[in-house]
Amino acid sequence: MINGNMIVDPNKGLSDIKYNNLNLPYSITKGANKLRGKTKYYLGNFVYTDDKLDYMICSEGLLNINSTTKESNYEFHLKDHLGNTRVAVNESNTITQENNYYPFGLTFAQSGSSTNKYLYNGKELQEETGFIDFGARQLDKELGRWFNIDPLAEKYYQWSTYNYVMNNPIILIDPNGKEVQVSSTTNKDNTKTVTFIVTVGISNRAGLKKSKLDHYTNLVTSKIEELYSGYDSKSKTTYKTIVIVDKDEKDYVINFTDGIRKTTSGGMKTVDRYKLGTNTKNGEFEKNTMQVNVYAIGSDDGIARTGAHEYGHTIGLEHPDGGEAVEISKSSPDNLMRQTTHTKGTTITKKQLNKAFKYIDKYQKVFKNKKSCSTKYTI
């Protein structure tokens, strides 16, 4: 290993792998010979092979170009919920390629005459090595792992630096080898899965010792994952929440504090030592500070519940004080969003989960770069 990068792979007979300054392989030796494929140039969507235009990458497939006759033909790619190319069809509606995949990208029962190499997750298969090129890293589909370290490893410290999509390739995708995004699954029986990936930073205004801070962080994040997950039998939808703690995240933060701090309209800063929690602005999941007053709450259960409650506000959930919230209150008297000093409610209804999904999804369609709390849903 050099810088955590694999330099030999006996399974594939690779005896020497050299890397450039971007930690990408530039020289690979197999046996006694260096692997030398054709030279490819990627100019936007245009791909040249040995200085000749070979094909153009389109949104729904490829435009193949014969460099000799100058003739071109479209090849349409039919993909599944993860972006895997399952079937390729030419302009004559003839199937030219069929692919089936194991969860981490290894193909089986592959057939057809097409030379298309954009297969698993729609990424290009490297013929010389058998690796899948995700841009920032190369995926070993046989082992189901990367062979160099995640450049964003500190954001996923609880996972191996070589894991692929947190070992959950059925519903998660990694568009460039750096950061996890979510996808939903629509099965043949019309059941669906919606996954929320929540990235939060942690602030320690209360001045807690590291062991106590880590303890409270685990309490709150685990409670969020627990309460904002579940199954809705009516819509046949499974909701799943995954929380990632990122020490570099400064915009979307859980702040463990010794008093709730606010600034009045007149600019005066106040501290309420008795209020349990608050957030900067309800419905704001891009830039928000969720304050949890650990000294006023006191108990582990209360701290976990308060953090999960304030998180609910950031994704569009309300107190049960009118309209739809009253209906939720009546049907779910122990609802988490009814939390006061005297209640211990921990229920989040499927109606609330669906509302949160629609709320986030609506804004992500307008603002494409949401990172703190993200979801992608495909029907």
Give your account of this protein's structure:
With 379 residues, this protein is an alpha+beta fold. It has two domains: 38-122, no CATH class; 184-374, Collagenase (Catalytic Domain). It has five helices and 27 strands. The chain has helices spanning 210-227, 294-297, 300-314, 324-331, 350-366, and strands at 14-19, 25-30, 33-34, 40-43, 46-49, 52-58, 61-65, 72-79, 85-90, 95-101, 107-111, 124-125, 132-133, 138-140, 145-146, 172-173, 181-182, 185-186, 192-204, 230-232, 237-245, 252-257, 260-263, 269-272, 277-279, 288-293, 373-374. The strands form six sheets. It has an eight-stranded antiparallel β-sheet with strand order 4-5-6-7-8-9-10-11, with no helix packed on it. Strands 18, 19, 20, 21, 22, 25, 26 and 27 form an eight-stranded mixed β-sheet that branches. Helix 1 (210-227) crosses helix 3. The longest helix has 18 residues, at 210-227. It is elongated, with a radius of gyration of 25 Å. The two termini are 43 Å apart. 30% of the residues are buried. Mean pLDDT is 81; it is low at 366-371 and 375-379.
